Amino acid sequence: MPTEPGLHMSDDLEAKRRRASYRAHHRGTKEMDVLVGRYADDRLASYTIEQIERFERFLTIPDPSLQQWIFSGQGYNGIEFEDLLNDIRAFHGLGAEAK
Q1: Does 68 reside within a domain?
Q2: Which domain holds residue 24?
Q3: What pLDDT, in 10s, does the model give residues 34-86?
Q4: Interatomic CA distance for residues 43 and 88, integer angstroms
Q5: Is residue 69 part of a domain?
Q6: End-to-end CA distance of the chain, in Å?
Q7: Domain for residue 59, yes or no?
């Protein structure tokens, strides 16, 4: 995707970070806004463009599924986002041992 004159790849990366952060903080339920938003605040600054794009795909999962996976630690074994869910659980002190 070509960038506009005067824009750099880092500008595109920062725009993606801001968009992902906004979406993480505006999930639809207060609990998920807090869980996913705080995680995004901590992690997005170090994410590569590929990691941000993956996180954006993760954000398309409906809140009820994410909430169940994050709180229970079960039901997501083997999916694309297994390591991300484990990291979110560990970040919030929910443990990563149960899947």
Answers
A1: yes
A2: 9-91
A3: 999 999 999 999 999 999 999 999 999 999 999 999 999 999 999 999 999 99
A4: 10
A5: yes
A6: 38
A7: yes
Apex CA 50: angle with CA 47 and CA 51, to 5°?
A: 40
| Total domains, the chain | 1
- Which residues, 6+ apart, have CB-to-CB distance to 74 below 8 Å? 98, 99
> Are the CB atoms for 21 and 41 separated by under 8 Å?
yes
Confidence class of residue 97 from pLDDT cuts 50, 70 and 90? low
Read off the amino acid at residue 64.
P
Given its phi and psi angles, is residue 2 left (phi above 0), alpha (psi -120 to 50 degrees) or beta? beta
For residue 86, the domain's CATH number is 1.10.150.250
